[in-house]
Structures are given as C-alpha cells and as structure tokens.
Design goal:
The chain is an alpha/beta fold. The protein folds into two domains: 90 residues, Rossmann fold (3-Layer(aba) Sandwich); 111 residues, UDP N-Acetylglucosamine Acyltransferase, domain 1 (3 Solenoid), CATH 2.160.10.10. It has three helices and 23 strands. A seven-stranded parallel beta sheet has the order 6-9-12-15-18-21-23, covered by helices on one side. It has a six-stranded parallel beta sheet with strand order 7-10-13-16-19-22, with no helix packed on it. Helix 1 links the parallel strand 1 and strand 2.
C-alpha cells in the first residue's frame, strides 16, 4: 500500500500500519508543491508525485490510504480520496487491534480507527472517516463519509453525524440527535438537539480563577 500524504498524519499512519496491521507500506505520495516540505519520511521508501498520476503504480498492483487531516472540514481529504477512487484504486483501512468493533457494525474504506475506540452493535461508519483514540460510538449510531472525530467523543445510541463534520475532543452528541452535514463542533460541546448544515458549536474555555494556585492550595 501507498500512503497519500506526507505530513504528521501520514507519519502516524505509517507507524500504525507498520506495527499493527497486515499491510506493508511501500511508499508515500504527495502533490508536487509538497515534495520539498515532506516531513521526516523513511529514507528507504519512494515518494511519488501525485501531480503526475502516471508515476503511481496501477490500481491492479497497489492499494492506497489517504492520510490527510481535517482541514477545510475534511474537504482536502475528500477530494484526494474521491479522485483516486474514481480512477479505480482500492483504499484500505487501519483499525487498531486495541479497538472494540462490534461484529454487527459496518465500516467503509479508508477508515483510520485508533486505539481504545468502541463501536457498538449495528453502528454504521462511512468511508474516509477518522476516529482518533478513545471514542464511543453507540449502538445503531451512524457516521457519514469524510468525518473527523477527535479523542474521547461520545456519539450516543441512534445518533447520526452528517458528512464532512469535525467533532473536537470531549464533545458529546445525545441519543437520537442528528448532526447535519458540514458542522464544526468544538471541544467539550454538548449537542442535545439536531443541528442544521454548516453550523458551528463552540464551548468556551474555562476562565482562570482570580485566586492564585498558591492561595488555593495553601502553599
């Protein structure tokens, strides 16, 4: 398999695939403008130029994994994934051996599911979805394509998440609620009712107390 991307997410994907999957990474691929800025890639692996599609091995000989982050509500990752999917390439998924995935759950391709995720019975996860570490996807919940979910997020039973959403750390979606397409849900937010497309939910950071830690802890 070849990893599309050469930034931090791609380097993490290389580590996970290399240590905890049946796949062998045989190269990376980026567009021409990123060839010189690729970060700390293994020197023994080739770096392909996506701006010259003919340089990639044929779809019959290689699989791909698109390892981009959540920029522009996952649109960059969606565009590259969709372009190479249309050219006939097969996309593989990484699912950590330390995640629990119900046998009745359905997961699409190009999934990146890290350690300590729980995906319960009859949950449905679309294609090109990232679940960073430690999330809970409840029974009968559904997550559409091109979604990025950060760590320690709870998607309760029968809840749904539309396409191209970003959900920040420690956010929660209550049972039976529907998150619409292209929502940005900030860290610590609680979604207690269904949303509309393109909405932003931001939970404000905790303000510092006027009392110093020295006084509070009686140092």
């Amino acid at each position: 398999m070849i990893i599309l991307g050469a930034g931090e997410t791609a380097r993490l994907a290389y580590e996970y695939f290399s240590t905890d999957s049946p796949f062998s990474v045989v190269g990376f691929a980026v567009h021409e403008q990123f060839l010189q800025s690729s970060l700390c890639l293994p020197a023994d692996l080739p770096l392909y130029n996506l701006s010259e599609p003919a340089s990639l091995p044929s779809p019959n000989s290689i699989s791909l994994f698109c390892a981009l982050g959540s920029s522009r509500l996952n649109s960059d990752r969606m565009q590259i994934y969709s372009a190479f999917k249309a050219r006939g390439y097969n996309f593989v998924s990484y699912i950590s051996s330390r995640a629990f995935i119900s046998p009745s759950a359905i997961i699409g391709d190009n999934a990146f599911i890290l350690e300590h995720n729980v995906v319960q019975s009859k949950a449905r996860i679309g294609s090109n979805v990232t679940l960073w570490s430690g999330n809970h996807i409840g029974h009968h919940a559904s997550i559409n394509d091109h979604v990025f979910i950060s760590s320690h997020v709870v998607i309760a039973g029968y809840a749904s998440v539309g396409s191209n959403c970003f959900i920040g750390i420690n956010a929660s979606v209550a049972d039976y609620c529907s998150v619409a397409d292209f929502n940005y849900i900030g860290a610590g937010s609680l979604i207690g009712k269904s949303s509309k497309p393109y909405q932003v939910f931001r939970n404000h950071s905790t303000s510092a107390s006027p009392v110093s830690s020295q006084r509070f802890c009686k140092l």
